Amino acid sequence: MTTTTPYPPDPQAPHNELPGRIMAREMAEQPAVLRRILSQGAPAIREVAEQIAARAPRFVLLTARGTSDNAALYAKYLLEIRLGLPCGLTSMSTTTAYGARPDLTDVLVITVSQSGGSPDLVASTRAAREAGAITLAVTNNPDSPLAGVSEYHLDIMAGPERALPATKTYTASLLTLYLFAEGLRGGTGAPAKVLPDLAERLLARQHEVRTLAARYRFAERMVITSRGYGYPTAKEAALKLMETSYIPALAYSGADLLHGPLAMVDNVSPVIAVVTDGKGGEALRPVLDRLRGRGADLVVIGPRHQVEQASAGFVLPTEEVAEELQPILEILPLQLLAYEVTIARGQDPDAPRALAKVTETR
């Protein structure tokens, strides 16, 4: 069963705010949030990582819903590629609905949740801890029920997020998970120090995104694809577009796109490709060739040379940041795109219909 709990109104918010003003303000806060994590949160993240590394977990299970699930998928790529730790994304209903109790001795269970309040996340984490798991909660609320039932907690330090579409909590979760993964392997996370300034520069290019958004004002369907580290970005971008503009947006791994869904792409089909500069982008290259061959309306978010071969795109400064950090920047123009498309369609991205800030799934 799923119920929704409205987020408390912001007493500071003016009553006559224009549509999308809250989401716009929170997107603009992201560079400051990234700086806060790097300057204030990093020591605590490293300490937790060192304590967990000393316990030598043999496997990692990641648990989340919605936007946080896409952050968890990013963590899966990080932990498997950079640490060689096998990871899985959990199905919470196996414990909450079916009552399964697997042996989780020496397994690290990471639960990612903005609010830390969803009953199924709390129940599955409690069950995991009782089954012998090392439990870590990654939330924006250190006083949440989820933080309370977990052995360890990481605060993503994003501050209150009032718009229903999660923006700053997503990028804050990604950076927190990156620093945690680096801490597990004894790293300092120093390469992430460039992110706040780069994020500021990207968000200042909103006029470019507004031009792209005009392509999708009357779109009836969209496909978003990527591979490797970019795949969580594709899934999060699709979620943002669906929950704000109500455009059905389908996210596929490039490999999966070739196994059937490519048949629905034709010369009027809008496709967005998130191209990381690295091995994921190299693996996506045959997919891009197939999309061009089908005459798809292809927009690329990524390196300049890939954007120049597409119908249009948004150039990312990929040469300034490692592939595993690019998702923290890739999502920014796509958040702006969801915002601009929604405004162009005459809707309010701050308050999508039928949604609430805290979704209580049981």
UniProtKB/TrEMBL annotation:
Coiled coil: none annotated. It comes from the Bacteria. This is SIS domain-containing protein. GO terms for molecular function: hydrolase activity. Pfam families: SIS. CDD domains: SIS_GlmS_GlmD_1 (cd05008), SIS_GlmS_GlmD_2 (cd05009). It is an enzyme of class 3 (hydrolase). Keywords: Hydrolase, Repeat. The keyword Acyltransferase does not apply. PROSITE patterns: SIS. Its EC number is 3.5.-.-. Residues 48-190, 212-352 form the SIS domain.
